[in-house]
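ARCHIVE CARD
CATEGORY: sequence design from structure
SOURCE FIELD: tokenized fold
FIELD CONTENT:
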């Protein structure tokens, strides 16, 4: 996924994302985690680092 694709995804369903049905957990899984992964962050700890090194 690219940042452009994240923007297109948001734009396509913006009305839904602005409702109370769309919560913080969904926001994180749909947009924030993918965004930070695109920036190179190891969100899912694929490197297997200990908690204090994540």
């Amino acid at each position: 996924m690219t940042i452009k694709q994240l923007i297109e995804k948001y734009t396509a369903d913006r009305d839904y994302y602005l409702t109370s049905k769309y919560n913080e957990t969904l926001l994180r899984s749909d947009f924030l985690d993918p965004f930070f992964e695109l920036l190179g962050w190891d969100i899912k700890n694929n490197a297997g680092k200990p908690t204090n090194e994540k």
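CARD ANNOTATION: The helical segments are 3-12, 14-17, 24-38. The chain has a mean pLDDT of 93.
SHELF: design records, drawer C
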